[in-house]
Amino acid sequence: MTILYLHGLESKLSPAKRSILERFGTVIAPDLDYHNNPNVFDLLLKMSETHTFDVVLGSSMGGFMGYYFANTINCPALLFNPALPHRPVPQNIPAIDPVNTSSLLHFALGGQDDVIKANDNLKWLAENRLSNTDIKISIHNQMGHPIPVRILEIEVTEFFRQLEFLK
Q1: Residue 80: CB partners within 8 Å, gap ≥ 6?
Q2: Confidence category of residue 167, pLDDT binned at 50, 70, 90
Q3: What InterPro entries does this protein's entry cite (predicted)?
């Protein structure tokens, strides 16, 4: 299993979180410069020419990018507080083909997130529903924008359990 992890705008994948992900497969976590490269999506497409990604995980801006990338390459994704309703930096992304999308999108939202409010993501998801995609949504009432290691472990474990169930 090859896992593509897309970090947020001002973050990187911590060693503790990487070790959790590595229980489930090989982790590729590129260092992305969202501020200075509006074509991060094209960079990911180029990476997919040499890597086969089985799943995409992303947080915040990486969740935004992961949403579009997973739907383009048609693979499942786990997205933490994705910057779908609004984002601080522009990125060039293609339109999603509504017929050929990810089979599963799992969203983990923070009830205390004051950067990307859970309700804003819920509204965006309702307005942009993909009819061929199963969606799972978890709201962690005490979680803010940063993802605690404990919650990442819970969500990652559940996400991979769902993938096994879908086989």
Answers
A1: 57, 58, 59, 60, 63, 107, 108, 109, 147, 152, 155
A2: low
A3: AB_hydrolase_fold, UPF0227/Esterase_YqiA
